[in-house]
Amino acid sequence: MAPPLALDIDGTLTTPSGRIDPRVFELLPDWDAPVVLATGKAFPYPVALAHFLGRPETVIAENGGVAHVDGETAVLGDPAVPRAVVEAYEARGGEIGWGDGDTVNRWRETEVALSRDGDEALLREVAAAAEGRVEVVDTGYAYHVKSPDVSKGKALRRVADALDIAPEAFVAIGDSENDASTFAVAGESYAVANADATAREAADVVLDEAYMDGTAELLTDLRERGE
Ligand SMILES: O=C(O)COP(=O)(O)O
Ligand SMILES: [Mg+2]
């Protein structure tokens, strides 16, 4: 049998320009084990991806702030301090940066995501004043202001438990610092070649290929290994 998967989305299942790579729709619909989509994006995004893959909606969103498995949603993070920090950042002239009708945060329940065009130094200064009650995570796609109490890895433990699978049975693939906690929980972890330094350091293996080229090759190998 193929191993269960914990898959990051941006940078891992995408092309360099941020589109979902079409090979996702070849490799994942019939994957013969649970697939957990574990992302920094808001909850509707991985749910929609699972839905259009024809797979169970087994997802971790908001960097572990929200988890959904077997039809049950767990909201694991508290947005109060992240929101207060971002208000303080805006009060000092910082911008969230997504423009009008911000769909990045519209459905976000436990954290705030900011455009990387924003003032990182100011954001980190304001976050530091919260004295450890928030952390700023740079995924390469956004700055996320989140509670340090939630992570994709912690949520993976919870989802694995609900699925009655040992967390170590999972193979995790990712590209950035928000995947390091998943890598620590899964039994086998891979960073795609475009991964940041934190993800590369945390992964068991850094793949030769980047983005979905790396992920697709690995998934093909894992599938063959399970046959
Ligand atoms: O939303 C982001 O910033 C990154 O999303 P990801 O965790 O799927 O890479
Ligand atoms: Mg990513």
From TrEMBL:
Described purpose of this protein according to its UniProt entry? Catalyzes the dephosphorylation of 2-phosphoglycolate.
SUPFAM superfamilies linked to this entry: HAD-like (SSF56784)
Q: Where does substrate bind?
A: 152
What are its E.C. numbers? 3.1.3.18
Protein name per UniProt: Phosphoglycolate phosphatase
UniProt similarity note: Belongs to the archaeal SPP-like hydrolase family.
* Chain residues that bind Mg(2+): 8, 10, 175, 179
The record's Pfam families line, in alphabetical order, gives: Hydrolase_3 (PF08282)
Reaction equation(s) it catalyzes: 2-phosphoglycolate + H2O = glycolate + phosphate
